[in-house]
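job 3f2a | input accepted
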Amino acid sequence: MRAAVAARIVAETGDVRRFHSSAAFAMHTGTAPIPASSGATHRHRLNRGGNRRLNAAVHRIAITQARIDDRARRYLDNRKAMGNSRTEAIRALKRHLARHVYGLLITAKRLSGEIAVLRQDGLPAVT
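job 3f2a | predicted structure (127 res):
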């Protein structure tokens, strides 16, 4: 991820703690799929809402990954083998990347000490 794209993501996201899950973050970035099924056809369409600048940053990452990363190419090939079009496969890759970006942002907050790591019983974990 280039520094400019990473900076855009950090700046547009603000405090990642305001999102209760990666799904909420994906809705904010506009990468969460929206059901567009009709009859026996079950599909999802691109979300045109959310923060367009964040969406553009995730899109840049997805297109670059599709071009140079073998894992992303395999992911896209698998999605196409499942019957998805290239656009649908890119949408799925963007959602996957948004989940990963959210995890990185949360990890960065934890490492900085701004988010306490809690055990299942709600007590602080010793790290």
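job 3f2a | The chain is about 60% helix and 5% strand.
job 3f2a | closed
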